[in-house]
Amino acid sequence: MPSTSPVKVLDKSGQEIVSVGFDRFGFNSEVPIDALRSLYLRSHYVVTSTSDKVDGDSLDPDAEEQQHAKFTKGLSAYQSKSIFYPEDNSISYTTLARFPPVKLLAPSQRKRVLVTGGAGFVGSHLVDRLMLLGHDVTVLDNFFTGSRTTVSHWVGHPNFELVRHDVVEPFMIECDQIYHLACPASPPHYQFNPVKTVKTSFMGTLNMLGLAKRTKARFLISSTSEVYGDPEVHPQPEDYWGHVNPIGDRACYDEGKRVAETLTYGYQRQDGVDVRVARIFNTYGPRMNPYDGRVVSNFIVQALKGEDLTVYGDGTQTRSFQYIHDLIDGLICLMNSDESRPVNIGNGDEFTIGEFAELVREIVEKVQSEAGDRPSRRVQIIYKTLPNDDPQKRRPDTSRAKESLKWQPRWTVRMGLEEMVSILAQSQKVLSLTFYVRIGTVITGCR
Ligand SMILES: O=c1ccn([C@@H]2O[C@H](COP(=O)(O)OP(=O)(O)O[C@H]3OC[C@@H](O)[C@H](O)[C@H]3O)[C@@H](O)[C@H]2O)c(=O)[nH]1
Known about the structure:
transmembrane helix, transmembrane, UDP-glucuronate decarboxylase, 12 helices, signal-anchor, three-stranded mixed β-sheet, globular, cytoplasm, seven-stranded parallel β-sheet, Rossmann fold, alpha/beta, binds uridine-5'-diphosphate-xylopyranose
Protein backbone atom coordinates (compact mmCIF):
# COMPACT_ATOMS: atom_id res chain seq x y z
CA MET A 1 0.00 0.00 0.00
CA PRO A 2 1.47 3.43 -0.86
CA SER A 3 2.18 5.84 1.98
CA THR A 4 -0.54 8.40 2.74
CA SER A 5 2.08 10.97 3.72
CA PRO A 6 3.07 13.76 1.37
CA VAL A 7 6.67 13.06 2.40
CA LYS A 8 7.42 10.43 -0.23
CA VAL A 9 10.76 8.67 0.16
CA LEU A 10 12.43 6.31 -2.25
CA ASP A 11 15.05 3.78 -1.25
CA LYS A 12 18.42 3.27 -2.92
CA SER A 13 16.82 1.20 -5.68
CA GLY A 14 14.07 3.75 -6.36
CA GLN A 15 11.27 1.86 -4.54
CA GLU A 16 8.98 3.90 -2.29
CA ILE A 17 9.61 3.28 1.42
CA VAL A 18 6.24 2.64 3.07
CA SER A 19 7.44 0.54 5.98
CA VAL A 20 10.65 -0.18 7.85
CA GLY A 21 11.86 -3.40 9.45
CA PHE A 22 11.47 -7.02 8.33
CA ASP A 23 10.68 -10.50 9.53
CA ARG A 24 14.04 -12.08 10.25
CA PHE A 25 15.50 -14.52 12.79
CA GLY A 26 12.01 -15.19 14.15
CA PHE A 27 11.40 -11.54 15.02
CA ASN A 28 9.14 -9.36 12.90
CA SER A 29 10.15 -5.69 13.22
CA GLU A 30 8.11 -4.27 10.35
CA VAL A 31 5.95 -1.17 10.97
CA PRO A 32 4.48 1.44 8.58
CA ILE A 33 6.69 4.51 8.18
CA ASP A 34 3.66 6.78 8.71
CA ALA A 35 3.08 5.32 12.17
CA LEU A 36 6.67 6.16 13.14
CA ARG A 37 6.44 9.64 11.61
CA SER A 38 3.40 10.50 13.67
CA LEU A 39 5.41 9.58 16.77
CA TYR A 40 8.52 11.54 16.05
CA LEU A 41 6.42 14.57 15.43
CA ARG A 42 4.34 14.11 18.52
CA SER A 43 6.84 15.09 21.15
CA HIS A 44 7.30 18.46 19.47
CA TYR A 45 3.70 19.03 18.47
CA VAL A 46 3.31 22.47 19.95
CA VAL A 47 1.12 25.21 18.55
CA THR A 48 1.50 28.87 19.35
CA SER A 49 -1.49 30.67 20.86
CA THR A 50 -2.74 33.95 19.43
CA SER A 51 -3.43 37.03 21.51
CA ASP A 52 -7.19 36.80 20.88
CA LYS A 53 -7.48 33.49 22.68
CA VAL A 54 -10.67 32.75 24.61
CA ASP A 55 -10.31 31.13 28.04
CA GLY A 56 -6.68 30.59 27.27
CA ASP A 57 -7.39 27.86 24.75
CA SER A 58 -8.38 29.09 21.35
CA LEU A 59 -5.68 28.79 18.74
CA ASP A 60 -4.53 30.40 15.61
CA PRO A 61 -7.04 29.12 13.08
CA ASP A 62 -5.76 25.85 11.82
CA ALA A 63 -2.92 26.88 9.54
CA GLU A 64 -0.25 25.49 11.85
CA GLU A 65 -2.28 22.45 12.71
CA GLN A 66 -2.89 21.65 9.07
CA GLN A 67 0.82 21.81 8.47
CA HIS A 68 1.36 19.21 11.16
CA ALA A 69 -1.58 17.09 10.12
CA LYS A 70 -0.16 16.63 6.65
CA PHE A 71 2.68 14.58 8.16
CA THR A 72 0.34 12.51 10.28
CA LYS A 73 -2.52 11.86 7.92
CA GLY A 74 -4.82 9.20 9.31
CA LEU A 75 -2.99 9.19 12.63
CA SER A 76 -3.75 12.64 13.98
CA ALA A 77 -6.32 11.14 16.38
CA TYR A 78 -3.36 9.90 18.40
CA GLN A 79 -1.57 13.23 18.61
CA SER A 80 -1.38 15.24 21.79
CA LYS A 81 -1.22 18.98 21.41
CA SER A 82 0.49 21.50 23.63
CA ILE A 83 0.04 25.26 23.48
CA PHE A 84 2.86 27.78 23.68
CA TYR A 85 2.05 31.28 25.02
CA PRO A 86 4.76 33.64 23.76
CA GLU A 87 3.55 36.61 25.82
CA ASP A 88 4.54 35.04 29.13
CA ASN A 89 6.81 32.32 27.74
CA SER A 90 4.75 29.47 29.16
CA ILE A 91 3.51 26.19 27.78
CA SER A 92 0.38 24.20 28.41
CA TYR A 93 1.05 20.47 27.97
CA THR A 94 -1.67 17.96 27.25
CA THR A 95 -1.47 14.22 27.64
CA LEU A 96 -2.77 11.66 25.22
CA ALA A 97 -6.29 10.42 25.60
CA ARG A 98 -5.57 7.49 23.30
CA PHE A 99 -2.39 5.67 22.33
CA PRO A 100 -1.66 4.51 18.81
CA PRO A 101 -2.53 0.86 18.17
CA VAL A 102 0.19 -1.61 19.16
CA LYS A 103 0.32 -5.24 18.06
CA LEU A 104 -1.26 -7.86 20.28
CA LEU A 105 1.36 -10.56 20.65
CA ALA A 106 1.00 -14.04 22.08
CA PRO A 107 2.79 -14.25 25.47
CA SER A 108 5.44 -16.52 23.93
CA GLN A 109 6.31 -13.83 21.33
CA ARG A 110 6.18 -10.86 23.65
CA LYS A 111 9.58 -9.78 24.95
CA ARG A 112 10.34 -7.80 28.08
CA VAL A 113 12.88 -5.33 26.77
CA LEU A 114 15.07 -2.96 28.78
CA VAL A 115 16.44 0.03 26.85
CA THR A 116 19.09 2.03 28.70
CA GLY A 117 19.40 5.52 27.26
CA GLY A 118 15.89 4.98 25.88
CA ALA A 119 15.08 8.71 26.04
CA GLY A 120 17.98 9.62 23.76
CA PHE A 121 17.95 10.07 20.01
CA VAL A 122 18.63 6.45 19.01
CA GLY A 123 16.92 4.99 22.09
CA SER A 124 13.63 6.78 21.54
CA HIS A 125 13.35 5.54 17.95
CA LEU A 126 14.06 2.00 19.12
CA VAL A 127 11.40 2.39 21.82
CA ASP A 128 8.80 3.55 19.27
CA ARG A 129 9.48 0.52 17.12
CA LEU A 130 9.39 -1.99 19.99
CA MET A 131 6.21 -0.44 21.39
CA LEU A 132 4.37 -0.50 18.05
CA LEU A 133 5.44 -4.14 17.70
CA GLY A 134 3.69 -4.98 20.97
CA HIS A 135 6.58 -5.65 23.35
CA ASP A 136 6.94 -4.62 27.00
CA VAL A 137 9.46 -1.80 27.16
CA THR A 138 11.24 -0.30 30.16
CA VAL A 139 13.35 2.80 29.57
CA LEU A 140 16.19 3.75 31.91
CA ASP A 141 17.58 7.22 31.45
CA ASN A 142 19.26 9.85 33.63
CA PHE A 143 18.16 12.61 31.19
CA PHE A 144 21.75 13.84 31.03
CA THR A 145 21.53 14.21 27.24
CA GLY A 146 18.22 12.41 26.66
CA SER A 147 14.88 14.05 27.27
CA ARG A 148 11.53 12.91 28.64
CA THR A 149 9.82 14.58 25.69
CA THR A 150 11.21 11.98 23.27
CA VAL A 151 9.17 9.18 24.87
CA SER A 152 6.47 11.08 26.76
CA HIS A 153 3.90 9.93 24.19
CA TRP A 154 4.13 6.42 25.69
CA VAL A 155 3.88 7.39 29.36
CA GLY A 156 0.80 5.72 30.85
CA HIS A 157 0.69 2.93 28.26
CA PRO A 158 0.36 -0.45 30.01
CA ASN A 159 3.32 -1.88 28.04
CA PHE A 160 5.64 1.01 28.91
CA GLU A 161 7.66 2.16 31.90
CA LEU A 162 9.99 5.17 32.16
CA VAL A 163 12.53 5.11 35.00
CA ARG A 164 14.91 7.92 35.86
CA HIS A 165 18.06 6.05 36.71
CA ASP A 166 21.77 6.43 36.11
CA VAL A 167 23.34 3.17 34.90
CA VAL A 168 26.47 3.77 36.99
CA GLU A 169 24.26 2.48 39.83
CA PRO A 170 22.99 -1.13 39.73
CA PHE A 171 19.42 -1.76 38.61
CA MET A 172 17.33 -4.89 38.96
CA ILE A 173 14.49 -5.98 36.69
CA GLU A 174 13.34 -9.20 35.02
CA CYS A 175 13.82 -8.94 31.26
CA ASP A 176 14.54 -10.96 28.12
CA GLN A 177 16.60 -8.46 26.13
CA ILE A 178 18.76 -5.48 27.12
CA TYR A 179 19.68 -2.80 24.63
CA HIS A 180 22.42 -0.92 26.46
CA LEU A 181 22.61 2.47 24.74
CA ALA A 182 23.18 4.81 27.70
CA CYS A 183 26.10 7.20 27.11
CA PRO A 184 26.44 10.74 25.70
CA ALA A 185 27.42 10.36 22.03
CA SER A 186 28.06 13.82 20.62
CA PRO A 187 31.71 14.97 20.97
CA PRO A 188 30.84 18.23 22.83
CA HIS A 189 28.54 16.29 25.18
CA TYR A 190 30.90 13.43 25.95
CA GLN A 191 33.82 15.83 26.41
CA PHE A 192 31.77 18.09 28.71
CA ASN A 193 32.42 15.72 31.64
CA PRO A 194 35.01 13.17 30.49
CA VAL A 195 35.26 11.43 33.86
CA LYS A 196 31.52 10.85 33.86
CA THR A 197 31.71 9.54 30.26
CA VAL A 198 34.34 6.93 31.18
CA LYS A 199 32.43 6.05 34.33
CA THR A 200 29.20 5.59 32.35
CA SER A 201 30.92 3.42 29.75
CA PHE A 202 32.68 1.23 32.29
CA MET A 203 30.40 1.06 35.32
CA GLY A 204 27.19 1.34 33.33
CA THR A 205 28.20 -1.57 31.13
CA LEU A 206 29.42 -3.58 34.14
CA ASN A 207 26.06 -3.11 35.88
CA MET A 208 24.02 -4.01 32.81
CA LEU A 209 26.15 -7.06 32.08
CA GLY A 210 25.67 -8.12 35.71
CA LEU A 211 21.92 -7.81 35.17
CA ALA A 212 22.13 -9.83 31.95
CA LYS A 213 24.08 -12.54 33.76
CA ARG A 214 21.53 -12.74 36.58
CA THR A 215 18.41 -12.68 34.37
CA LYS A 216 19.95 -14.60 31.42
CA ALA A 217 18.77 -11.75 29.17
CA ARG A 218 20.44 -11.25 25.82
CA PHE A 219 22.65 -8.15 25.98
CA LEU A 220 23.34 -5.74 23.11
CA ILE A 221 25.74 -2.83 23.54
CA SER A 222 25.83 0.20 21.26
CA SER A 223 29.51 0.58 20.54
CA THR A 224 30.84 3.02 17.98
CA SER A 225 32.96 3.62 14.92
CA GLU A 226 35.09 5.69 17.31
CA VAL A 227 36.71 2.46 18.55
CA TYR A 228 38.71 2.69 15.28
CA GLY A 229 39.97 6.16 16.32
CA ASP A 230 41.65 8.05 13.46
CA PRO A 231 41.81 4.95 11.24
CA GLU A 232 44.80 3.92 9.13
CA VAL A 233 42.70 1.30 7.34
CA HIS A 234 39.89 2.44 5.04
CA PRO A 235 37.05 1.44 4.98
CA GLN A 236 37.04 -0.04 8.48
CA PRO A 237 36.26 -3.76 8.89
CA GLU A 238 35.46 -5.18 12.33
CA ASP A 239 38.79 -6.99 12.64
CA TYR A 240 40.73 -3.71 12.42
CA TRP A 241 42.07 -2.92 15.93
CA GLY A 242 41.97 0.82 15.52
CA HIS A 243 44.24 3.83 16.03
CA VAL A 244 43.18 5.66 19.19
CA ASN A 245 45.00 8.32 21.19
CA PRO A 246 44.48 6.98 24.73
CA ILE A 247 45.00 10.35 26.42
CA GLY A 248 43.39 12.72 23.90
CA ASP A 249 40.19 14.77 24.15
CA ARG A 250 38.13 11.99 22.56
CA ALA A 251 39.64 9.17 24.64
CA CYS A 252 36.90 9.27 27.29
CA TYR A 253 34.45 8.04 24.66
CA ASP A 254 36.73 5.99 22.36
CA GLU A 255 38.53 4.17 25.18
CA GLY A 256 35.34 4.04 27.23
CA LYS A 257 33.60 2.13 24.45
CA ARG A 258 36.66 -0.05 23.86
CA VAL A 259 36.75 -1.13 27.50
CA ALA A 260 32.95 -1.60 27.38
CA GLU A 261 33.49 -4.07 24.51
CA THR A 262 36.27 -5.76 26.50
CA LEU A 263 33.93 -6.18 29.48
CA THR A 264 31.18 -7.50 27.21
CA TYR A 265 33.39 -10.25 25.81
CA GLY A 266 34.78 -10.91 29.31
CA TYR A 267 31.26 -11.70 30.52
CA GLN A 268 30.66 -13.84 27.45
CA ARG A 269 33.82 -15.92 28.02
CA GLN A 270 33.65 -16.10 31.79
CA ASP A 271 29.91 -16.28 32.47
CA GLY A 272 28.35 -17.34 29.18
CA VAL A 273 26.36 -14.11 28.79
CA ASP A 274 24.68 -13.97 25.38
CA VAL A 275 26.12 -10.76 23.86
CA ARG A 276 25.76 -8.61 20.74
CA VAL A 277 28.04 -5.68 19.84
CA ALA A 278 26.91 -3.02 17.34
CA ARG A 279 29.56 -0.56 16.14
CA ILE A 280 27.43 2.37 15.10
CA PHE A 281 28.66 4.83 12.48
CA ASN A 282 27.47 8.45 12.16
CA THR A 283 23.68 8.50 12.34
CA TYR A 284 21.17 11.30 11.89
CA GLY A 285 17.43 11.85 11.92
CA PRO A 286 14.49 13.54 13.60
CA ARG A 287 14.75 14.01 17.39
CA MET A 288 18.47 14.64 17.22
CA ASN A 289 18.98 17.48 19.64
CA PRO A 290 19.34 20.47 17.28
CA TYR A 291 22.08 21.90 19.48
CA ASP A 292 24.05 18.79 20.38
CA GLY A 293 26.96 20.00 18.28
CA ARG A 294 27.14 17.19 15.75
CA VAL A 295 27.62 18.08 12.15
CA VAL A 296 24.22 17.11 10.73
CA SER A 297 22.15 19.01 13.29
CA ASN A 298 24.58 21.96 13.28
CA PHE A 299 24.43 22.40 9.50
CA ILE A 300 20.64 22.00 9.27
CA VAL A 301 19.92 24.40 12.12
CA GLN A 302 22.45 26.94 10.84
CA ALA A 303 20.99 26.86 7.32
CA LEU A 304 17.39 27.12 8.55
CA LYS A 305 18.28 30.09 10.74
CA GLY A 306 20.08 31.78 7.84
CA GLU A 307 23.48 31.46 9.58
CA ASP A 308 26.69 30.40 7.86
CA LEU A 309 27.62 26.72 7.95
CA THR A 310 30.69 26.06 10.11
CA VAL A 311 33.06 23.53 8.57
CA TYR A 312 35.83 22.52 10.99
CA GLY A 313 39.31 22.34 9.44
CA ASP A 314 39.54 22.45 5.65
CA GLY A 315 36.53 20.16 5.23
CA THR A 316 38.48 17.32 3.57
CA GLN A 317 37.83 14.88 6.44
CA THR A 318 35.15 12.32 5.54
CA ARG A 319 32.16 10.73 7.24
CA SER A 320 29.49 8.26 6.09
CA PHE A 321 25.98 9.03 7.29
CA GLN A 322 23.10 6.62 7.94
CA TYR A 323 19.47 7.44 8.57
CA ILE A 324 18.00 6.48 11.93
CA HIS A 325 15.54 3.87 10.62
CA ASP A 326 18.33 1.89 8.97
CA LEU A 327 20.20 1.84 12.26
CA ILE A 328 17.13 0.65 14.20
CA ASP A 329 16.58 -2.11 11.61
CA GLY A 330 20.22 -3.14 12.06
CA LEU A 331 20.10 -3.13 15.87
CA ILE A 332 16.92 -5.22 16.03
CA CYS A 333 18.27 -7.60 13.44
CA LEU A 334 21.55 -8.03 15.32
CA MET A 335 19.81 -8.54 18.66
CA ASN A 336 17.70 -11.37 17.25
CA SER A 337 20.43 -12.98 15.14
CA ASP A 338 23.08 -15.51 16.20
CA GLU A 339 25.95 -13.11 15.45
CA SER A 340 27.95 -12.46 18.61
CA ARG A 341 30.99 -10.86 16.96
CA PRO A 342 31.08 -7.03 16.65
CA VAL A 343 29.09 -5.78 13.64
CA ASN A 344 29.48 -2.40 11.90
CA ILE A 345 26.11 -0.72 11.35
CA GLY A 346 26.48 2.20 8.98
CA ASN A 347 25.92 3.52 5.49
CA GLY A 348 28.81 3.36 3.02
CA ASP A 349 27.90 6.68 1.32
CA GLU A 350 30.98 8.74 2.18
CA PHE A 351 31.22 12.55 1.93
CA THR A 352 33.90 15.07 2.70
CA ILE A 353 32.51 17.48 5.28
CA GLY A 354 32.88 20.27 2.71
CA GLU A 355 30.69 18.35 0.21
CA PHE A 356 28.25 17.55 2.97
CA ALA A 357 27.85 21.25 3.86
CA GLU A 358 26.95 21.96 0.23
CA LEU A 359 24.43 19.10 0.17
CA VAL A 360 22.71 20.29 3.36
CA ARG A 361 22.56 23.86 2.05
CA GLU A 362 21.02 22.69 -1.21
CA ILE A 363 18.39 20.54 0.55
CA VAL A 364 17.45 23.31 2.98
CA GLU A 365 17.06 25.71 0.05
CA LYS A 366 14.84 23.16 -1.76
CA VAL A 367 12.62 22.61 1.29
CA GLN A 368 12.36 26.37 1.88
CA SER A 369 11.48 27.07 -1.72
CA GLU A 370 8.79 24.31 -1.72
CA ALA A 371 7.32 25.95 1.38
CA GLY A 372 7.35 29.35 -0.31
CA ASP A 373 10.05 30.76 2.00
CA ARG A 374 12.53 33.20 0.50
CA PRO A 375 15.59 33.74 2.69
CA SER A 376 17.10 37.22 2.39
CA ARG A 377 20.54 35.86 1.48
CA ARG A 378 22.30 32.62 0.61
CA VAL A 379 24.13 31.14 3.62
CA GLN A 380 27.88 30.81 3.20
CA ILE A 381 30.26 28.03 4.18
CA ILE A 382 32.87 29.24 6.66
CA TYR A 383 35.86 27.45 8.16
CA LYS A 384 36.75 27.01 11.85
CA THR A 385 39.49 25.24 13.77
CA LEU A 386 39.53 21.45 13.53
CA PRO A 387 39.01 19.82 16.97
CA ASN A 388 41.91 17.74 18.35
CA ASP A 389 42.20 14.16 17.09
CA ASP A 390 39.26 14.60 14.69
CA PRO A 391 39.32 11.42 12.52
CA GLN A 392 40.39 12.17 8.95
CA LYS A 393 38.28 9.52 7.27
CA ARG A 394 35.55 7.10 8.21
CA ARG A 395 33.51 4.60 6.24
CA PRO A 396 32.16 1.26 7.42
CA ASP A 397 32.98 -2.03 5.78
CA THR A 398 29.53 -3.60 6.18
CA SER A 399 30.28 -7.01 4.62
CA ARG A 400 29.66 -8.77 7.93
CA ALA A 401 26.25 -7.15 8.42
CA LYS A 402 25.31 -8.08 4.85
CA GLU A 403 26.40 -11.71 5.26
CA SER A 404 25.29 -12.44 8.82
CA LEU A 405 22.25 -10.22 9.19
CA LYS A 406 21.21 -9.85 5.53
CA TRP A 407 21.00 -6.16 6.44
CA GLN A 408 22.00 -3.19 4.39
CA PRO A 409 20.95 0.47 4.47
CA ARG A 410 17.89 1.41 2.41
CA TRP A 411 17.79 5.19 2.85
CA THR A 412 19.90 7.46 0.71
CA VAL A 413 21.55 10.30 2.60
CA ARG A 414 19.53 12.77 0.55
CA MET A 415 16.16 11.13 1.33
CA GLY A 416 16.88 11.08 5.04
CA LEU A 417 18.07 14.68 5.00
CA GLU A 418 14.99 15.87 3.12
CA GLU A 419 12.72 14.29 5.71
CA MET A 420 14.75 15.62 8.65
CA VAL A 421 14.97 19.13 7.21
CA SER A 422 11.20 19.23 6.50
CA ILE A 423 10.46 18.28 10.08
CA LEU A 424 12.93 20.72 11.61
CA ALA A 425 11.71 23.49 9.31
CA GLN A 426 8.18 22.75 10.48
CA SER A 427 9.19 22.87 14.16
CA GLN A 428 11.02 26.10 13.52
CA LYS A 429 7.88 27.68 12.10
CA VAL A 430 5.78 26.68 15.06
CA LEU A 431 8.15 27.92 17.69
CA SER A 432 11.64 29.27 17.71
CA LEU A 433 14.44 26.72 17.67
CA THR A 434 15.80 28.30 20.83
CA PHE A 435 12.63 27.32 22.59
CA TYR A 436 12.60 23.95 20.85
CA VAL A 437 15.85 22.99 22.49
CA ARG A 438 14.67 24.19 25.88
CA ILE A 439 11.87 21.64 25.89
CA GLY A 440 14.49 19.11 24.78
CA THR A 441 17.86 18.71 26.34
CA VAL A 442 19.57 20.60 29.08
CA ILE A 443 23.08 19.51 29.91
CA THR A 444 23.65 19.14 33.59
CA GLY A 445 26.93 18.64 35.35
CA CYS A 446 25.96 15.36 36.97
CA ARG A 447 28.70 13.19 38.41
O1 LIG B 1 29.59 22.26 13.00
C1 LIG B 1 30.34 21.29 12.73
C2 LIG B 1 30.33 20.09 13.48
C3 LIG B 1 31.20 19.08 13.14
N1 LIG B 1 32.03 19.23 12.07
C4 LIG B 1 32.94 18.14 11.64
O2 LIG B 1 32.10 17.11 11.10
C5 LIG B 1 32.66 15.82 11.35
C6 LIG B 1 31.64 14.97 12.07
O3 LIG B 1 31.47 15.49 13.36
P1 LIG B 1 30.36 14.95 14.39
O4 LIG B 1 30.54 15.72 15.65
O5 LIG B 1 29.03 14.96 13.77
O6 LIG B 1 30.72 13.40 14.61
P2 LIG B 1 32.10 12.61 14.77
O7 LIG B 1 32.23 11.78 13.55
O8 LIG B 1 33.25 13.50 15.08
O9 LIG B 1 31.81 11.76 16.05
C7 LIG B 1 30.71 10.84 16.07
O10 LIG B 1 31.19 9.60 15.67
C8 LIG B 1 30.31 8.51 15.67
C9 LIG B 1 29.38 8.43 16.86
O11 LIG B 1 29.71 7.36 17.71
C10 LIG B 1 29.19 9.69 17.63
O12 LIG B 1 27.93 10.18 17.32
C11 LIG B 1 30.15 10.81 17.46
O13 LIG B 1 31.16 10.64 18.39
C12 LIG B 1 33.93 16.10 12.14
O14 LIG B 1 35.02 16.11 11.27
C13 LIG B 1 33.73 17.47 12.74
O15 LIG B 1 34.94 18.17 12.98
C14 LIG B 1 32.03 20.39 11.32
O16 LIG B 1 32.78 20.53 10.35
N2 LIG B 1 31.18 21.39 11.69
